[in-house]
Design a protein that fits this description.
By secondary structure, the chain is α+β, with helices and mostly antiparallel strands. The chain has 3 helices and 6 strands. A hairpin with a 2-residue loop joins strand 5 and strand 6.
Length: 144
């Protein structure tokens, strides 16, 4: 669930560099179990603390596709029904979800560029946890 959200401008009137959305999503261990059940990805690094640590991770980590999905959902909301032509990202660091705690995923989406001749905008998302970038090169192209 979003902890706080701010929308400043609409895609059709936004300029390059404008912040379109700032939000934080909280991930808990129960979210990881639910995602594992829904996706079929039962890799123990997402649910078994001892196993995760045995393979060199600091603790259980969120599924990369879950983190990516959080961002994709926010971009879909920003698109307001306009087609998303492309969406991509790179995984930069794991999202650690500690026992008895949670991970706050901070998402800031801005307008990277616009091509008025083609009727398209490119969005860029900065995605981090506790100041550490967890996704990089997160971009979406939307047809207006």
């Amino acid at each position: 669930m979003s902890e706080h959200e701010h929308r400043s401008v609409d895609l059709t009137s936004a300029s390059a560099g404008d912040t379109l959305l700032e939000t934080s999503e909280t991930l808990r261990r129960a979210d990881l179990v639910a995602y594992a059940d829904a996706s079929g990805d039962q890799n123990p690094i997402h649910q078994d603390e001892a196993f995760a640590k045995s393979v060199g991770l600091p603790d259980v980590i969120a599924h990369g596709m879950l983190t990516m999905g959080l961002v994709a959902s926010r971009i879909e909301e920003l698109a307001q029904g306009h087609p998303i032509i492309s969406f991509g990202t790179r995984f930069a660091a794991p999202v650690v979800v500690p026992a008895g705690g949670d991970a706050r995923v901070d998402i800031v989406v801005s307008l990277f560029s616009r091509d008025d001749d083609a009727g398209r905008v490119t969005l860029d998302a900065a995605v981090s946890v506790a100041g550490t970038k967890v996704l990089s090169r997160t971009r979406a192209v939307i047809q207006l």
